[in-house]
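Side project, low priority. Logging it here so it doesn't get lost.
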Amino acid sequence: MADEQRIKRRRLLKAGLGSSVAGLTGCLRFGTGGSGSNATATGSNSGSTTDAAFEFEYDAGRQRATVRYTGGGRIPAGNVHIQSTAGESVLWPQLGTTTANDDEVLTPGSEATVGPTVLNWDSAVEATETIRVVYDDGSPTTLARFSPAAAETDTRTAERTDSPAETERTVPSVDGAYDGFEDGTTAGWTPAAEHTSTFEASRERAFAGSWSAKLSQGSASDNPVWERVGEERRPTTVQTAHALANGEIYADSFTEWRLGETTVLRVNYNWSNNFCAVNGRGARPNDIEEGAVVADLPWPASDRFFHVVLDDIDWAESVVGSVRVNGAVRAENVPFFDEADGIDRATVFIGGNGGNVMFVDDTTVPTA
């Protein structure tokens, strides 16, 4: 099929969101229907909690809980508190695992994860605790509650979901192959060319767990590339998470999944121009074509990770069905960067004027 015909076909794809969600090893998923509350906020952050619904996931091994908004009502993020019976209480936008601003209305699929190493949440979530989602516009209303030990949300009995391919992360690649650097090393990663950069495991910050990889650019002449090569695969989901520790004048960082030298999928964190894009080419948001801008980024440093998931990858159509950033759906039906029959390596790199430092975590790698 000619390139022009293929691109036309991509643009004609119907917008649609895949419904498959992987489960968690040692983790339970619980859902709650609408709260039934008719509370309505007033003022600039006006919202309604009518039929607001949430679901929860608990990772016993990592002692972390994920709260996911599934729809209903109109919920400004800045009015939502995540609370625990251990004494924690943090606004949704203040958690390091979220991207929503105070005045941003939650969209279905938005997630907040709490537990150890999460920015602004200092403690593990014990199985005996209760997590509550509280909407507060001057009159607090509990929208949902969750206790892992009781296996309940609100007053309804929770059921374990069927999940034939369970892994340890909330958004794994379909073959379970990802590097979270939890062994305290960057084993398997090698520099693609000679340069002055370093790529080392670090406990300074992490998206999940305790470790990530710290990539320091080195000299201004370097655009260092580190890669991990494996067997060719055709995953239906890939993921990566970046955070910027220090930006000097200009900085962008990338995760790419390639087949040989062909870039098939790309996540471009263009820090100094304040945007994140999936696939597509261009140095500014308006330049991105045949791709999608999916998030606003801070500059010159980021206290939080931006976790990007490319899901429902259709290899026959060369299209990414949906893109999520920290749990929220940001784009659908995004064409591949370049077409190929699979991927055999993951690459991470950082560019700019020298001295840039970033962290990468939970990145899909096409290993055996």
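Brief comment: The chain is about 5% helix and 40% strand.
Revisit when time allows.
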